[in-house]
Design brief:
single chain, 158 residues, alpha+beta, Nucleotidyltransferase, domain 5, three-stranded antiparallel β-sheet, 17% strand
């Protein structure tokens, strides 16, 4: 399936990413730009173990996704779409952690090939995104280990 779509802004591709609490990409999927976000989330999350929270932006606000998350024992932290008739509960404090996802997208887009989508073929672009995600995972893991070592050394000195 080609992942280049047409929208009002021209040709585009959306990258959907699930990250862990450290901002490391766990799952990644591409869709055409005009496709909605919410229908992609459920299949992407189905393969992963349930988490305590799931933070997403307003584009992922749907009853189906919220019900799926609640059935899994995950609290949805999704702001209500302005057009929503029945307002769902929303925790703005927990939503502040969504910046972790945004930082991951910034790291992905540090890769010029990902940011500009030079590849015509979906398989090549997905491969580029996976390579960038693996590098982000590795770099983030190394820095997380350093922080843990530093904190253990400082607690040993005390």
């Amino acid at each position: 399936m080609p992942a280049i779509g047409r929208s009002r802004g021209g040709r585009s591709t959306k990258i959907h990413v699930v990250v862990d609490r450290y901002g490391r990409p766990i799952a990644l999927q591409l869709t055409p730009g005009q496709r909605g976000d919410a229908p992609v989330a459920t299949p992407l999350l189905t393969t992963l173990p349930p988490s305590r929270l799931c933070a997403a932006d307003t584009a992922y606000d749907s009853n189906a996704l919220r019900n799926f998350l609640i059935k899994r024992g995950t609290q949805p932290v999704i702001p209500n779409n302005p057009t929503r008739k029945n307002i769902q509960p929303f925790d703005p404090e927990a939503y502040k952690r969504r910046n972790i996802i945004e930082r991951t997208f910034c790291r992905l887009k540090d890769w010029r090939r990902v940011a500009t989508r030079y590849d015509k073929l979906t398989t090549n672009f997905v491969a580029t995104c996976y390579i960038a995600a693996i590098f982000i995972w590795w770099a983030n893991s190394v820095s997380t280990l350093r922080l843990k070592r530093l904190s253990s050394w400082s607690s040993d000195a005390a």
